[in-house]
Design a protein that fits this description.
coiled coil, 2 domains, Tumour Suppressor Smad4, 464 residues, six-stranded antiparallel beta sheet, Helix Hairpins, FHA_dom, five-stranded mixed beta sheet, SMAD_FHA_dom_sf, FHA domain-containing protein
């Protein structure tokens, strides 16, 4: 074809595929097939799809030597032509008109329960046009103008022959049989491994016992050689008796040393426990003293506050009495004022009474009334101050009582800790005593056994 002729390829949607619009692609240059990214978006004139089963660089499509070629570029889920997979990055597949192309495989997301379909479409080509590339219309206009010279083949259904189905079932049965045989072989291998491990354990124990017996035989043979060289049976029996007596003396010494060690250990534990108890008692005694001193101080403060409250109550009573007296005086002055009002009324009617006397009485009444109000206000302020002081003292008393309760609770917890330490000390002493008794019994049994053996040997010697 001429160099200015554009080769167009149509890729149309087929059933059971991920949804996409039909594409019309110019294949004069290699066309990349893959998944869309934030830089490369799907359009009607490229082979980029928003499909999750595709790789970013899935395959490549190009036109060369009047042929259309397709190559897989190391994709994850593969590329298929007419249901046959292309060998990755090795084989370039020649395409023909009506071929069914599949990019990727269907993937099921079990966590999200979502099925991701692959890209399936039919290929239609060649679609040639003599329009230069720079004057070439957009793909949607080309689809309206250009009609394909070949018939459109739809591959919505994939037909499988009965022979292929029979062959597939045969392969499945053979695979199941192989799986069963492999499981049986695996169980037999596991059983054999378990048996080998048991045999290894038995052989190891037998070898240990054999080594012990061989060493024992060697020692007995050496003792026999020494006995045959040194003398007869009488000398051997005497040596045995001497060795038994030495053994008896050693056991007695060991018993005494063991008893002494146990007694020293017991005494040391007792001393250590007593020291711990003394330290705990001292600490608790100091804490008790501090708590008692704090308690006494709190009691003294409470008593002082109580006396202060009583004094405030007395002062409040005195202030109330003064207020009552002032109110009585105020009532008397009011009576006087009423009397002066009456006099003024009379003076208005009687001309014989001079005006100066009336004015003097009225002025004196006003001054007395002003003094009474000032005294009343002062007494009210004093009462309010005493009430506020009484409220603050009550709050302080409540705080002291809560502190006293917390101190008593802490004292009670310390007493409980002392009891727990005493019980732990007693249990430790009992366990040490039990260990001492058990060791004594064991030593007594060994001594009795050695005494019995020495007496038996002496009796045998006397019989001989």
């Amino acid at each position: 074809m001429a160099a200015d002729v554009n080769i167009l390829v149509s890729f149309k949607y087929c059933g059971h595929s991920h949804l996409f619009n039909d594409r019309l692609i110019d294949v004069n240059k290699p066309v990349k097939i893959g998944r869309s990214t934030y830089r490369v978006k799907p359009t009607d004139n490229n082979l980029i799809f928003t499909c999750k089963v595709l790789s970013r660089n899935h395959a490549i499509l190009w036109y060369e030597d009047n042929k259309l070629w397709l190559k897989d570029t190391n994709s994850s889920n593969g590329t298929f032509v007419n249901n046959a997979r292309i060998v990755t990055d090795v084989e370039a597949k020649e395409l023909h008109n009506g071929d069914l192309l599949q990019f990727g495989i269907d993937v099921v997301d079990a966590d999200k329960n979502v099925n991701h379909n692959c890209i399936i479409g039919s290929l239609e080509w060649p679609i040639e046009t003599d329009i230069p590339r720079e004057r070439m219309p957009t793909p949607d206009k080309i689809l309206d103008v250009v009609t394909p010279p070949v018939r459109i083949v739809q591959h919505d259904k994939i037909e499988i022959s009965k022979k292929e189905l029979v062959q597939l079932s045969k392969y499945m049965k053979e695979a199941v049989q192989r799986e069963k045989s492999l499981k049986m072989k695996l169980t037999s291998v596991v059983e054999a491994l378990v048996a080998v491990q048991q045999c290894q354990k038995i052989n190891l124990q037998g070898s240990i016992k054999e080594d012990y017996l061989l060493a024992r035989i060697d020692t007995l043979e050496s003792e026999l050689e020494i006995f045959s060289k040194n003398g007869n049976k009488d000398t051997f029996s005497e040596q045995l008796i001497d060795s038994q007596e030495a053994k008896y003396r050693c056991e007695l010494q060991l018993k005494d040393s063991l008893q002494n060690n146990l007694m020293e250990k017991l005494n040391a534990n007792k001393v250590f426990a007593e020291m711990q108890l003394e330290d705990a008692n001292k600490n608790l005694g100091n804490e008790l003293k501090t708590v008692k001193n704090d308690n006494d101080e709190l009691i003294g403060k409470v008593d002082g506050l109580n006396t202060k409250c009583e004094e405030m109550d007395q002062m409040l009573k005195v202030a109330k009495a003064k207020i009552n007296e002032r109110e009585e005086l105020l009532a008397n002055y009011r009576i006087k004022l009423n009397f002066t009002d009456a006099i003024s009324n009379i003076a208005s009617t009687v001309d014989s009474i001079p005006d100066t006397a009336i004015n003097h009485v009225e002025a004196q009444a006003v001054i007395d009334n002003k003094d009474l109000t000032e005294e009343k206000n002062r007494l009210q302020e004093q009462i309010n101050r005493l009430l506020s002081e009484e409220e603050a003292s009550k709050i302080f008393v409540n705080e002291l009582q809560s502190k006293y309760q917390s101190v008593t609770a802490e004292l009670f917890s310390k007493e409980k800790e002392i009891d727990l330490l005493k019980t732990a000390h007693d249990s430790k002493l009992r366990t040490l005593q039990d260990e001492l008794d058990a060791n004594k019994d064991e030593v007594d049994g060994n001594i009795a056994l050695s005494i019995f053996s020495t007496t038996w040997l002496a009796l045998r010697r006397q019989r001989k």
